[in-house]
Specification:
Order of helices and strands of chain A: EHEHEEEHHHHHHEEEEEEEEEHHH
Number of helices of chain B: 19
Structural class of chain B: alpha+beta
Low-confidence stretches of chain B: none
Number of strands of chain B: 28
Chains: A alpha+beta (292), B alpha+beta (753), C alpha+beta (169)
Low-confidence stretches of chain A: none
Structural class of chain A: alpha+beta
Mean pLDDT of chain A: 96
Largest interface: B-C, 56 and 54 residues
Radius of gyration of chain B: 27 Å
Helix content of chain B: 25-40%
Distance between the termini of chain B: 68 Å
Mean pLDDT of chain B: 96
Strand order of the largest sheet of chain B: 3-5-1-12-9-10-11
Oligomer: heterotrimer
Strand order of the largest sheet of chain A: 4-5-10-6-7
């Protein structure tokens, strides 16, 4: 334990409006924290420098799962245990339900929040590939109001995002139109549980008369932040799934992926496994009947 | 003989002696102890692998008057940790020989203040070229230890190896490597020390060997026996990792306590424990083997090298055990094992469950499968043709005088695992599946107790006493750290004395009260110390019969009444016994010939694996561990030992990698040093065949280390069966599988179903 | 200095208590240092090993990752609160009989994870047991005796304990 609790100020205003006013009054001064499964790790390692912390934990306005006609809204403070237990997520957004089981272990899932996972912005974030494949939209909030941006524009660099200093991530919106899509999600980690992704790939694709009419690919650990693989999508759009299509998809992802060597894996391994995953997805998609 | 008699308590799965305390959160581990006015200690460590300390500066922003600062100059006695050779400084003095070497100690009442202070000690070095691998050390330039960088070497010879090559039908060579492995006990190292001018030094801590710590503290503090007291607190796992390191940490805490005048607690956090404490020795083992046309071994030439790290610590004895296990449980007339432990500028490698044997057994058991492939013979059949049997001689020409039932263990393992049917099925199914399955085995033995004359040198003393409140106590320095020492030894005493399990307790693990019955290592506790407790208990009964009128079949009440009479007459009721070697034991330390071990445990392990060709990852799907360990004293504890060892062995084979950067462990966090979780460990089927060993406690042989020996070769052999590629190095991570598989894979067109 | 720290109220093992402490102090440290409940252990300090696991408002958490301010008003259960009137909890009894504890350092956290599991899912499958305990690293047992302990405890679970479970998976 290398951090000193006394070096950090922590307050819990208890409601969303108070937090937003605090952020507006002193933009950039306060670091919002929620389930703390990341910030406390940095604290233990003596790497937490932020002196002023404001807690979002327990703010009910941020913890909701609401089904609308065309989309599902998930509050940023929703935990992964909440997501796992919600029947609608399991039913309509199975990739997100599955990704929720990947967040550390039960003890992490009961604390870690969807918003925290995204704002932390790890390249290996477990929920991101599924959200990218589901074409998620991010809703932010500040005293000045709310705005929405596509999730694929949220991450802007390694551990950087599109939030202004006075903004919070408020909710994630997921369209309810994927039940006819082929869906795929696989994480390749260091072990079966408690693992950090070496590479992860999520995919949704709509096939029409055997051709790919719509496709979204979301990846972790292939870039400095979780990212859509637009170029690989481009190589597949409109194509029938043939051995040639699979080969060109492999080539496209090998070219598009920009993984790194680190103490967990190698760039070359990550790149090749990504190609294997997309091949696996396409073979499965070709075989799979759409969910009903 | 007691070992064959029907028993009441031995052989029964009685509840773990300290079990309830552990289950309700009442067991007291060192970090749970708080003393009035206690200070905290921290360590300033080297940041380079080798160099001269040019200067030590203290940042003036810190008020150093609040701190106690200790350097090598504060050591009142010898500045060395007392192991086999006293070459490791307690605190670096003028030069450093590895990263994370302790240089300076700090104490302060507020542990948070220590964090900043450690960073505020600025040390400058004149770096020297460092040696960071076996290969670099072999170049002997630079020389970093002794005259040749060799910590220890052994030459074991039997027959005439060189004459065998010309007559051999086949010669098969191979090189095998094993990596460092971290114990990853869940409780980090920790010690509390108290100094007083009158009583000397007392330490409490998480440790395996109270008398090892005692020996070092006497030397570091220049104190007589009675002025050093070592008390073990409940210990949260050890696996060899708390065999030698606590001597260093206890010295540090003691130095701070002496200088500060306060009780000082030093608890490592995980990052420090991983970076600074011992690991399993990495190894490189080369085999050259001659066979006749029937697949019988003619000659084995083994070149064995270990990386010992910067100081000798326990490398000598680890190398010894590796040497003695390097030829496996096979008959071979001509053997030469040349072994060397090389010094490198890394944290000294130390004891870890198996103590050199897992490295040696990985190499020989992988090599056997490569031989089988080279001469096109079933790997099972190859082993069967060469197994040791009763009456045969092993590498040290020790005659196997006890029963050897390797064939029987093998038959059982093959049947339980459905080995041949699976091999056939996988061979059929693998070609059409992205997941390739395979099954592999390892056959091995593990010597119980200290090597050669080791047990005689230890000269262990152990026994029992009876307190005035009618409690029988087991008097040993052997400690509980999860394996079941408390339970096994109290079972043995209760059994031999004709008492109930609840009548017997362990004496406190405190050198003020307990005799030196040797360290808790080397799979010796049940066999060697258990035997001493059995003998001491029987001796106590004899004393009470002779001097206190206890009848031949006295009841429990009569026993304690006799104890009271004996105490009234003699002052105390105590019975101690010293180790006696089994008859006919001969060992020559110079030629490495004779009875290397008093007894061997034997095993056949079978691993079933699945290799995913999409992710290049191998997983163990099922595991069978069949062994003969003498009498099983406690079935549940015994199973727990095997299962835990197998799980560690799986980690050793497939998950656990120590990433060193410039001699510093770069992945020193649990999130980056990957041990198998509850989701990764396969079902483990444990089967015992029991042949009581007449010189072990109630027939027991060693069990604790055995299960770490077999998993890695069985798993990698199974991977060979699955994909036809033999891997010769562990840990075998997906990245390694990828590199090798892709190296000779032609580009395949995707096949659509 | 300490007077400036906020007063934080919690219910710990059924008893209400207050601590005055830095708000960012870890719940683990508050339990161990302020409340002298040393059952929860620190094995890694980063939420990997689970030996600090406790239950907070009925959910399993790593107490090393909870700033105590976030436990304000919460009901905390630690291993010390598992046994009832000195009778071992069925899980504790099963761990004792099946050899689920060896060195004991992971045991308090393992018991809390197991309690969380079988309270929500009284008859878990082996896969569910493995997942429920995956955040609690045990280096001694290889997990087999622990799985057996949980199965044994779940088998003995009285039907009444199932009434608490609103949405068992």
């Amino acid at each position: 334990m290398r951090g000193n609790a006394e070096s950090h100020q922590l307050i819990a205003p208890g409601n969303l409006a108070a937090v937003l006013h605090l952020l507006a009054a002193e933009p950039g001064v306060w670091t919002p924290i929620a389930g703390c499964t990341e910030i406390m790790v940095a604290h233990a390692a003596g790497r937490l420098t932020a002196p002023k912390l404001v807690s979002l934990w327990g703010i009910d306005d941020l913890r909701f799962i609401e089904a609308g006609d065309g989309s599902v809204a998930i509050g940023a403070g929703t935990t992964f245990v909440d997501l796992r237990r919600h029947p609608l997520i399991a039913e309509e957004l199975p990739l997100l339900a599955k990704a929720s089981t990947w967040i550390g272990s039960i003890a992490n899932q009961s604390r870690a929040t969807l918003g925290g996972n995204l704002v932390n912005g790890s390249p290996a974030a477990d929920s991101s590939p599924a959200l990218l494949a589901y074409d998620a939209e991010i809703e932010t909030i500040s005293v000045h109001g709310r705005r929405r941006i596509p999730y694929y524009e949220f991450h802007t660099g390694y551990k950087r995002n599109a939030l202004a200093p006075d903004e919070l991530l408020y909710a994630v919106h997921l369209p309810r139109r994927f039940t006819q899509h082929r869906q795929y999600l696989r994480k390749v980690g260091t072990r079966r549980a408690m693992a950090i992704s070496k590479v992860a790939l999520a995919a949704t694709a709509l096939l029409e008369h055997g051709a790919i009419r719509e496709i979204r690919l979301g990846a972790a650990s292939l870039a400095p932040y979780p990212a859509r693989l637009f170029k690989t999508e481009g190589a597949l759009l409109g194509q029938r799934i043939t051995p040639e299509t699979i080969s060109s998809a492999r080539e496209a992802i090998l070219a598009e992926a920009q993984p790194i060597d680190d103490i967990r894996s190698t760039a070359e391994y990550r790149r090749r496994v990504a190609a294997n995953l997309i091949e696996e997805f396409l073979i499965e998609a070709n075989r799979q009947e759409p969910r009903t | 003989m007691s070992s064959t008699a029907t028993t009441r308590i031995v052989g029964a799965s009685v509840p773990r002696k300290e079990g309830v305390d552990k289950l309700v959160g009442r067991a007291v581990y060192v970090d749970d102890v708080v003393r009035e006015g206690m200070w905290h200690g921290a360590t300033v460590r080297s940041t380079i692998p080798r160099g001269i300390i040019r200067s030590i500066a203290f940042d003036p922003r810190i008020d150093w008057s609040e701190f106690t600062v200790v350097t090598a100059a504060d050591v009142p006695g010898k500045n060395h940790i007392q192991l086999i050779v006293a070459d490791q400084p307690c605190l670096a003095d003028g030069r450093v020989n590895h990263c994370d070497e302790p240089i300076l100690l700090l104490a302060h009442p507020d542990r948070h203040k220590l964090l900043e202070a450690v960073d505020a000690v600025k040390i400058e070095y004149d770096p020297l070229p460092a040696v960071l691998s076996i290969e670099e050390s072999e170049k002997q330039d630079p020389i970093i230890l002794g005259e040749d960088n060799i910590i220890k070497s052994f030459l074991l010879e039997k027959g005439d190896v060189d004459s065998a090559w010309t007559t051999a039908a086949r010669i098969v060579e191979g090189e095998y490597r094993t990596g460092a492995q971290e114990h990853l006990y869940i409780e980090n190292n920790g010690i509390i020390a108290e100094w007083s001018a009158d009583n000397g030094l007392t330490v409490w801590g998480s440790l395996q060997c109270p008398y090892y710590v005692h020996k070092t503290l006497k030397s570091v503090f220049d104190l007589p026996d009675e002025k050093v007291r070592v008390i073990q607190t409940e210990t949260g796992g050890a696996f060899g990792g708390k065999e030698d390191y606590p001597s260093t940490l206890a010295s540090h805490a003691g130095l701070l306590a002496m200088k500060s005048g306060h009780v000082v607690k030093m608890i490592y956090d995980r990052m420090e424990d991983l970076a600074a404490t011992t690991k399993r020795h990495p190894s490189r083992i080369r085999h050259r083997t001659a066979l006749d046309k029937n697949g019988k071994l003619l000659a084995m030439d083994v070149d064995l090298a270990t990386d010992g790290g910067a100081y000798s610590t326990l490398s000598t004895t680890v190398l010894s055990r590796a040497t003695l296990h390097s030829c496996g449980p096979y008959v071979c007339p001509n053997i030469r094992v040349t072994s060397r432990a090389w010094a490198t500028n890394t944290v000294p490698y130390g004891a870890f469950r198996g103590f050199g044997a897992p490295q040696a057994i990985f190499a020989i058991e992988r090599h056997l499968d490569e031989i089988a492939a080279a001469i096109d013979i079933d790997p099972i059949e190859l082993r069967r043709r060469n197994f040791l049997h009763r009456g045969d001689q092993n590498a040290t020409e020790q005659v196997m005088r006890e029963p050897v039932i390797l064939d029987q263990l093998l038959d059982r393992a093959l049947a339980e695992s459905d080995y041949y049917a699976k091999r056939e099925r996988y061979a059929r199914e693998n070609s059409t599946s992205a997941v390739k399955r395979g099954i592999g085995i390892a056959a091995f033995y593990h010597g119980s107790g200290f090597t050669g004359s080791g047990e005689l040198y230890l000269n262990s003393l152990a026994g029992v006493d009876v307190t005035p409140d009618n409690k029988v106590r087991v008097l040993v320095s052997n400690t509980e750290f999860g394996q079941g020492t408390n339970t096994i030894l109290t079972q043995i005493a209760a059994e031999a004395l004709g008492l109930e399990f609840s009548d017997v307790a362990m004496a406190p693990a405190d050198t003020a009260y307990i005799p030196n019955s040797g360290p808790t290592v080397a799979s010796r506790t049940s066999m060697v110390v258990g035997r001493l407790i059995e003998r001491a208990s029987l001796q106590l009964l004899a004393m009470l019969r002779e001097h206190a009128g206890l009848g031949e079949h006295g009841s429990r009440e009569e026993f304690f009444a006799a104890c009271e009479r004996y105490r009234a007459a003699q002052g105390k009721v105590e019975s101690l016994c010293r180790y006696e070697a089994p008859p006919g034991i001969y060992w020559d330390d110079k030629t490495y010939h004779g009875e290397a071990y008093g007894a061997y445990a034997w095993a056949i392990y079978v691993a079933q694996v699945a290799v995913d060709t999409v992710t290049y990852s191998a997983e163990v799907e099922d595991f069978w561990a069949v062994q003969e360990v003498g009498r099983v004293l406690h079935p549940i504890l015994a199973k727990g030992q095997i299962e835990g060892g197998v799980a560690q062995g799986i980690g050793y084979a497939l998950y656990e990698k120590v990433v060193l950067q410039n001699g510093h462990m770069a992945n020193n966090q649990m999130t980056n040093y990957i041990m198998p979780t509850a989701e990764d460990v396969p079902p483990i089927h444990v089967i015992f065949e029991e042949i009581p060993f007449r010189y072990g406690g109630y027939g027991a042989k060693g069990i604790g280390e055995l299960p770490h020996d077999g998993p890695a070769p069985a798993i990698v052999n199974a991977i060979r069966d699955a994909i036809g590629v033999g891997f010769n190095a562990i840990p075998l991570l997906p990245e390694d599988l990828f590199t090798q598989l892709e190296a000779h894979k032609h580009v395949e067109e995707p096949v659509l179903p | 200095m300490s007077t400036q720290w906020p007063i934080i109220r919690m219910t710990v093992n059924g008893e209400s208590c207050t601590v005055q402490t830095p708000p960012f102090k870890r719940l683990l440290d508050v339990l161990r240092e302020d409340l002298h409940l040393t059952g929860a252990k620190e094995g890694c300090g980063e939420g990997e090993c689970g030996s600090c696991s406790v239950r907070m408002n009925g959910e399993l958490v790593n107490s090393c990752l909870v700033p105590v301010l976030q436990a304000e008003g919460a009901a905390i259960q630690t291993v010390e609160g598992l046994a009832c009137n000195s009778a071992l909890h069925p899980l504790q009894q099963a761990f004792l009989e099946c050899g689920g504890a060896q060195c004991g350092i992971c045991t308090p956290g393992m018991l809390m994870a197991a309690a969380q599991l079988i309270e929500r899912n009284p008859h878990p499958s082996m896969a569910e047991i493995r997942e429920g305990l995956a955040g609690n690293l045990c280096r001694c047992t290889g997990f087999m005796r622990i799985f057996e302990s949980v199965v044994a405890a779940a088998t003995q679970a009285p039907e009444s304990s199932m009434e608490h479970v609103s949405d068992a998976r």
